[in-house]
Design brief:
Helicase, Ruva Protein, domain 3; alpha+beta; about 40% helix; OB fold (Dihydrolipoamide Acetyltransferase, E2P); single chain; 3 domains; DNA polymerase, domain 1; 5-stranded antiparallel β-sheet
């Protein structure tokens, strides 16, 4: 089982990065929000990984923090939640915020995540309520903050992610603001912004 990779960042094309580890290139899938924290190409990086073997593929999922991997693995145990939806959740909010939503039975906040309806949100809360206590330690309390702050946070994270992909700050800001309708998650803004690029 591959639990960690340390090497240099060769390429980043959401949702994949290519990592050179002693001459071997590993393709690793990340949540879109993680791209804002990646170093420049050629720089060293360490990714905590989850290795998944399917009938038709062997896949690596990468995380910058251990608690994100813990949440990812907990999500995979929830009925009806696969790796794709688990990454959507991690792209929309970090592990601490998600754990707070579960602890507060905040169905509405979870339903803002792409791919999560009311029944899935309720199932996540029911099945994970007693499993995520440790993930809230030191997490910022954003659930009770005004909605405008949450929107600005999502927008700022999206701008950082676009800059990590090579866009200049003014261009990244313009793209993110054009893609944000005031209710989008960070991942929504990034996706919409990238779709609006000609020939993208």
């Amino acid at each position: 089982m591959i639990g960690q990779l340390r090497g240099s960042l060769l390429a980043k094309q959401p949702p994949l990065v290519l990592l050179d580890v002693n001459g071997v290139g590993y393709e690793v899938e990340l949540a879109l929000s993680a791209f804002a924290q990646l170093p420049a190409l050629g720089e060293p990086i360490t990714l905590i990984t989850h290795f998944a073997v399917r009938d038709d593929a062997q896949l690596l999922y990468g995380f910058l923090h251990e608690r994100d991997r813990l949440l990812f693995r907990a999500l995979l145990k929830v009925t009806g939640v696969g790796a794709r939806l688990a990454l959507e959740i991690l792209g929309a909010m970090d592990a601490g915020r998600f754990a707070q939503c579960v602890a507060l039975d905040d169905v509405t906040a979870l339903m803002r995540i792409p791919g999560i309806g009311k029944k899935t949100a309720q199932r996540l809360i029911m099945e994970l309520r007693d499993r995520l206590g440790g993930l809230t330690d030191g997490a910022p309390s954003v659930i009770a903050a005004p909605a405008v702050n949450a929107r600005e946070l999502a927008l700022n994270d999206a701008v950082s992610a676009l800059m990590a992909l090579g866009y200049r700050p003014p261009e990244a800001t313009r793209m993110a603001r054009a893609a944000d309708d005031g209710t989008n998650t960070t991942e929504d803004i990034i996706r919409t912004a990238l779709r609006q690029i000609p020939n993208a």
